[in-house]
Design brief:
Layout lengths: L7 H10 L8 E8 L29 E2 L5 E10 L7 E4 L3 E2 L5 E3 L3 E6 L6 E2 L3 E2 L12 E2 L3 E2 L28 E3 L8 H4 L8 E8 L21 E2 L1 E4 L12 E7 L2 E7 L13 E4 L2 E3 L1 H5 L3 E6 L2 E6 L8 E8 L5 E8 L2
Antiparallel strand pairs: 1-3, 2-14, 3-13, 4-12, 4-15, 5-6, 6-10, 7-8, 7-13, 9-11, 16-17, 17-21, 18-19, 18-22, 20-21, 22-23
Length: 335
């Protein structure tokens, strides 16, 4: 039997040749503080990719927090502040068949770079002013920067055609680290938005928790059931000259901005995507409802409004440039 010896140079490269790409999903449960009430308390369920059950059903492959409970998750990558949404949090909400009302169990989202200091995303609730009651619902778009609102479509095992890192297709709730730039912990340097290593999810006790304006938050009660957390932007995969999508609400109107430092011609029109109220939508048709705004060689703006008072909805857009660099933004219009 012949023996074959690999050259020493090849052997020295073996660890690199066979190294696996770091997972973009939560890889470890750093801590779990179980709240009260029943649920599914299997911590391994929250690791890895989402297992969404679609618009009208909630996945059971989840970790329940229990009322008032929390979980802190660690990652193999460092989440960083890129253009638009930086990570997605998946719970198991679903449409009930009554218009766009959602059975949703809400939670706060916090991030940390050192595992000690956690910055909480500023959040806004414009839902019912009293508890919806057991199996009650919330209107889509009634809250911003809270988890647990948008049904989950992504399930790599069951629906491999849906990218779990695409906010316009995957469902779940996107979070943009740029929303934390004025947080005192970020300004002091205790939380570094260039290297987030931990995400903490804290269940909201209906009627006892408040949003960033001091408004009482109500949901149907019970506890949040966490499916997964997926990282869109991590250290090493953010390109300074990549595209940027912005979805902004101001003075009762809506602005959508696409920009690219290499020029608008660097954007790939075939990659343009959109979502409305958590559902994939035809981007060209949706933008057709806007009027053109400011235009330059590197930036184009679309405007809509003024919008009717009390209107609640979510809207998102995503685009890639010719090199494949990606940006997406999805926001809830609520006041």
């Amino acid at each position: 039997m012949k023996s074959f010896l690999l050259p020493a140079a090849v052997l020295s490269l073996a660890p690199l040749l066979f190294a696996q790409t770091p997972s973009p999903y939560a890889s470890k449960v750093v801590s779990f503080h179980k709240g009260t009430g029943p649920g599914i308390f299997k911590t391994s369920n929250v690791l890895g990719p989402p297992a969404g059950a679609g618009f009208y059903a909630g996945s059971t492959h989840v970790l329940s927090l229990g009322a008032g409970g929390s979980v802190t998750l660690g990652f193999d990558v460092e989440i960083t502040d890129g253009p638009g949404a930086d990570f997605l949090v998946f719970e198991n909400p679903f449409f009930t068949g009554k218009g766009l009302d959602v059975f949703a169990e809400l939670f706060f989202v916090e991030v940390s770079s050192n595992g000690r200091d956690f910055a909480r995303f500023p959040c806004f609730y414009d839902g019912p002013r009293k508890k919806p009651g057991l199996f009650g619902t919330l209107p889509m778009g009634c809250c911003r920067n809270l988890g647990g609102m948008t049904p989950v479509l992504a399930d790599p095992a069951g629906r491999p055609g849906i990218d779990p890192l695409d906010p316009c297709r995957a469902g779940g709730d996107p979070f943009d680290l740029a929303d934390l730039k004025v947080d005192p912990l970020v300004r002091s340097g205790k939380v570094d938005l260039r290297g987030i290593r931990y995400v903490r999810l804290v269940d909201i006790v209906s009627g006892a928790a408040r949003d960033s304006r001091g408004r009482t938050i109500y949901d149907p009660g019970g506890s949040a059931d966490i499916d997964a957390v997926a990282v869109i932007h991590s250290r090493g995969n953010v390109f300074p000259r990549g595209p940027r999508v912005e979805v902004l609400f101001s003075k009762g109107g809506l602005r959508v901005i696409f920009s690219d430092p290499d020029g608008l011609r660097d954007l790939d029109p075939a990659s343009l995507e959109a979502s409305l109220d958590g559902m994939p939508a035809a981007a060209a048709a949706l933008l057709g409802a806007f009027r053109p705004g400011a235009l330059s060689p590197t930036r184009v703006e679309f405007r809509a409004g003024p919008l009717p008072p009390g209107l609640l909805f979510t809207i998102g857009f995503a685009v890639r440039d010719r090199s494949g660099a990606f940006s997406a933004a999805r926001r809830a219009f609520s006041r």
